[in-house]
């Protein structure tokens, strides 16, 4: 009997393509990946498309159109496991900033012919529409974590992706806390690790690319920030970026809305 | 008279979903149609009210393949404004 080569598919919804690019970015590992799986649907890499069903689907992007809200169901049906990758797919992305405003007004100021534009009032994560087996966070995702997730699913094990904060990574790297030592406002204590804590290492506060960590204490962090002299509108905008619609960040930004 | 149509219903290896159709008549292109079905994301709208320092981080998310182009144009626009 021939050995079954698992089929990998990559799908795009409303997004910037950066997360799926992380897969192509695995330059040293790419040959090993293509040896282990059949890349069956990945338009960013190739026009060659193989039919489903697929063993593992990676879904990038959020749901923002009626057509996409339908399309995701077909992808779920054709996929044994479905993993969402990136802030758009896991939290609605930067385009979820419309969720706090009137999308009709947005359409009228951006497009000369708003009647050509078909869009939903809200940008929502994939998990609001179908069952998701695993969510990989990040804006963009970390390619090493992506490899870990692919490897875990192909070997039927749980992915080893820590849900702790960016602070833990600063400690691991020996980066002195910039909030304590320099008074720089940092979202690190409430943001999930995965970025290797790049920004604090360069003296810049974390700005939340990886979204909320497990059980984040956002109100306590805001309290700290106010001692550093950060204004209410600045705190609102800090929580309202790439992961604005992730529940803990959404609630915290709304708490600063006056 | 010879005519030919080249239809690509999903453009690969680019950011942004789209299709293109090229009509050729007697070795001359007689018509080109581009269809963009990438969903709108409204960067121009939600950038209003942000502090200028936040803009390059946000515009970098327009395209994950060429973020630097959008960061640079945001920086140049900000420099022009002051």
Question: Mind sketching the topology for me?
Answer:
The complex is a heterodimer of chains A (258) and B (82).
Chain A: E1 7-12, H1 18-24, H2 30-36, E2 38-41, E3 54-60, H3 66-77, E4 79-85, H4 86-91, H5 103-110, E5 134-136, H6 143-154, H7 166-173, H8 178-182, H9 198-201, H10 218-227, H11 232-239, H12 247-255
Parallel strand pairs in A: 1-2, 1-3, 3-4, 4-5
Helix pairs in contact in A: 11-12
Chain B: E1 3-8, E2 18-25, E3 28-36, H1 43-46, H2 55-59, H3 67-81
Antiparallel strand pairs in B: 1-2, 2-3
CATH architectural designation of the largest domain in chain A: 3-Layer(aba) Sandwich
- Runs of chain A in which pLDDT lies below 50 for 5 or more consecutive residues are none
The domain tally of chain B reads: 2
Task: Tell me the total number of β-strands of chain B.
Answer: 3
Provide tags for this entry:
heterodimer; A: 258 residues; alpha/beta; 12 helices; 5 strands; globular; B: 82 residues; alpha+beta; three-stranded antiparallel sheet; 3 helices; elongated
What does this structure look like?
The complex is a heterodimer of chains A (258) and B (82). By secondary structure, chain A is α/β, with parallel strands linked by helices. Chain A folds into 2 domains: 148 residues, 3-Layer(aba) Sandwich (Rossmann fold); 90 residues, no CATH class. In chain A, 37% of the residues lie in helices and 10% in strands. In chain A, strands 2-1-3-4-5 form a 5-stranded parallel β-sheet, with helices on both faces. In chain A, helix 11 runs antiparallel to helix 12. The radius of gyration of chain A is 20 Å and the shape is globular. Chain A starts with 6 loop residues before the first strand and ends with a helix. Chain B has 82 residues and is α+β, with helices and mostly antiparallel strands. Chain B has 2 domains: 39 residues, no CATH class; 43 residues, no CATH class. The longest helix of chain B has 15 residues. Chains A and B meet through helix 1 and helix 5 of A and helix 1 of B.
